[in-house]
Fold this sequence. Notes:
By secondary structure, the chain is mostly beta strands.
Amino acid sequence: MAKGVSKATLLASVFTPALFGVVTLATTSAALAAPCTGPGAPATTQTKCLTAVQIPGKPLRSFDISWVNPDRAEYYLGDRSNAGIDIIDTKHSTFVRTIPGFVGAVLNSAGTAVNNNVSGPDGVTSHGRWLYAGDGNSTLKVIDLDKPTASAIQQSIPTCPSKVPAINSTCAVPTLTRVDEMALTPDGKLLLAANNAADPPFGTLFAANGDNHSSNVSIITQIQVDPSIIPAGAGLSFEQPTWEPKTQRFYVSVPIIANNPTGCNYGQLAGAITCSGGMIVIDPTTLTAPLTVIGAFNATTNTGVVPLNACSPNGITVGPHENLLEGCTPMNSPSDTTTLVINAKTKNYANIGGITGSDEVWFNAGDRRYYTGSSAAIGGAVLGVINATSLLVETIPQSSSSHSVAADSDRNHIFVPQVAPASVVGAGGDKTTVGQGICGGTNGCIAVYAHDVDEDGFDDFGEHHEGFGELHQGFGFLER
């Protein structure tokens, strides 16, 4: 496993022109200011602020999920502000290009804030040359990363095909909403995407491209949840899915489900939400076309909706030993004050104190750490760092809407988008000065953090020699 690249090496590297034409960056004094200053770049943390990558075009006001393909050394961000997918070279920490063709940031009827439900791009994931991204008009965009920018989008697939009457009730044109977060199987042949803002929400299982040289993505089936678990009319949703290879299942975060606990308020009553969320377990080999309805959890088949304890999650990621970290957040249920780790096999769980409010979460195999984009953390937005034994290592302040995080496991670089100040972009912008210090300017940026595993006593395999037994024993409460 590759060691982290040193800061000196990166700063001495030469800028690499974009693959499909030279990119001209802004040369304002704000863009040229030194990045990595202030509370977002503490000298005492193990995770160090390395640099900031500027994104040409409009200041960052609205963005969604990000993704890293370490084999291609590329980072991808769903940038609604610039209506495209931003691509960064993770080896040199330089901007490469933006793939256009998305609806962008759509404002609410008053024109005062971004309506995320109909904006795009949103969720992104990739396998090889193929990048998949959700758009705000209920379409999946399939992008060939080996193509020039103008012709990169190869398919735009509606997740609401009117030719399928059995699922058309969720696809009325006036209520088309975004294709949001998604996950691929390791071979790149199955893709699960969530229409989180539809009411009721639904997922779509696609036959994806794998390693094909041409695009032929198609819908296999739509996935809904039994209305006794996710009732219509309350604005409930699906969120991030992930694939767990040992159990051969998709796992999907569900922010709120009914009757968890019995008699709780999921939105059918006035007042604060008191229900916790759930996790959908999906075996793709058991789904039926054109529609599959998922019910309560069945331990025998390891499928269905698992009620979660004190967690109303958005993000989800797979860590060691079939453990799943859920990005719990009080934005869904005010009582969420911890983060949850649950085992995919046993469903045993543990709550991690000191960190909450996460949207996207990511496990970095390079340093065996979880990273959380915790924009709704108590006390302000942070990048959360959790080790493989589910202990909180540190939190690092971020701009107030920084909810997206992804890591390059080959280089142990962590990428965290920062919004521009509210004084520049209005509602949704940074209400603090943290992002400006990290970025070295007022346009927002992609912050690049680095974790040098050598400094923490790790070897090339990401394991700690001293106390190695305790590291693995720490999973006992989840695995048994």
